[in-house]
Amino acid sequence: MYLGIESSCDESAIAVFDPASGRLEEWLHTQVQLHGKYGGVVPDLASREHMGNFPVLLETLLSESPDLKEGVQQIAVTRGPGLAGCLAIGIAMAKSLSVAWKCPLVGVNHLRAHAFSPFISIYQNDPQGFLGRLKQFLPHVGLLVSGGNTLLFELNADLDIQVLAETVDDAAGEALDKGAKLLGLPYPGGPQIETIAAKGGDPLKYPFPVGRPDKDLTRFSFSGLKTSLRYFLENFDRNQLESALPDICASYENAVVQQLVIRTRKLIQGSDIPFQSLGLSGGVANNQRLRTAFTELGQRLGIDSLFALPQHTGDNASMIVFAAYFDSLLPDKRGIRLDLEPSLRLEM
Ligand code: ADP
Ligand code: MG
Fold it and tell me: Mean pLDDT across the stretch 275-297?
């Protein structure tokens, strides 16, 4: 059994992974309601919550699987990127458990874990055949879209990661959250925008900017989109806002999706790398419009589209324990250093 611990932001999570069967179980506490009151994550509150929540999660886990402590072969913990105070609590707990249970401890790059998350279900379908099957998906191009990151990367045949494009300002999830805030919707805004857009909203009603696709393809940029919504709302008749909300949400959501998909397509088509699969991970990967657009993109390019399962998209410990196991299979044991690193980059 492998144990994973995640505490980089506002989710406290512990997961247990059995590589032989592929079984993954997760115990997670989200603070989303608490931070919702403030319109975003309050770092100090988040670390205090982790302090209270981890012992409860651990007690639940141990009451449900009392012999776990004898069976844990390795503990994996998120070492960054994330909020320093939050990371520290997960790492302190992981270190204590590793001393008490006398098992090795490894650190995991949270972004690398997101990058591998679309492969979890493939592993679970056939644990023994996984490494052979994985080769058919490489080189892989992945889009990692969350509240804090927007990254397009290559995962090559040696399982090395190279960033191909990233945001120069807001992340895609941040653009949705900030847009929702301007519209008076609660935090986190991404799911709110999706729900309202789905009430028959017309994605082409309002032409929000999708970023100039002829400009540098290695850059995503969403701050102009958010500003355009602000100007749009300044000139919009407030009495009409409620009835126009589905169209506004659908058009805004569509602008985010179009920028992601158009740039991804152009980068793939302009690259000489023979990509075999396309992946989508991170919290925004839950978005149905984006998933549909990615499925279509994969079909158009004639390559497989792989999606992280919903439970592996936001912050979670399953992807942490899976990434640690994945890296332990590599001959050079890449990426398993333990030092805390709040601003860790994907390739590290
Ligand atoms: P981070 O840890 O970087 O904040 P997460 O991976 O936890 O990111 O994802 C949270 C982000 O995902 C938020 O910005 C949220 O609005 C966005 N998100 C979650 N679900 C959806 C959805 N269905 N559609 C669009 N965005 C979503
Ligand atoms: Mg989060």
Answer: 98
Environment class of residue 233 by beta-carbon count within 10 Å: exposed (0-12), middle (13-18) or buried (19+)? middle
In this prediction, residues 288-316 reach a mean pLDDT of 97
Cβ atoms of 21 and 333 within 8 Å: the answer is no
Determine whether 299 is exposed, middle or buried from the number of CB atoms within 10 Å of its CB (0-12, 13-18, 19+).
exposed
C-alpha 218 – ligand 2 centre gap (Å): 25
Average pLDDT, the chain: 94
DSSP 3-state percent helix, strand, coil across the chain (nearest 5): 50, 20, 35
Work out which ligand 1 atom sits closest to the CA atom of 253.
25
Instruction: Indicate which atom in ligand 1 lies nearest the CA of residue 189.
Output: 16
Domains and CATH numbers, the chain: 2-132+314-328 (3.30.420.40), 136-307 (3.30.420.40)
For residue 139, cis peptide bond before it (omega within 30 degrees of 0): yes
For ligand 1, is residue 264 a contact (CB within 6 Å)? Answer: no
- Asked if 106 and 135 touch (Cβ cutoff 8 Å), the reply is no
Element (H, E) at 163: strand 161-167
Rounded to whole angstroms, how far apart are CA atoms 255 and 234? 19
Q: Tens of pLDDT along 83-99?
A: 999 999 999 999 999 99
Span 257-279, pLDDT tens digits = 999 999 999 999 999 999 999 99
Please give the pLDDT value at position 62. Answer: 94
Element (H, E) at 93: helix 84-100
**What pairs with residue 145 in β-bridges?**
150
Please answer whether residues 206 and 251 qualify as being in contact, where contact means their C-beta atoms are separated by less than 8 angstroms.
Answer: yes
DSSP state of 134: H
Mean pLDDT of 104-120: 96
Decide: pTM greater than 0.90. Answer: yes
**119 closest CA partner among 280, 3, 298, 295:** 280
Interior angle at CA 109, CA 17 and CA 224, nearest 5: 120
| Residues, the chain | 348
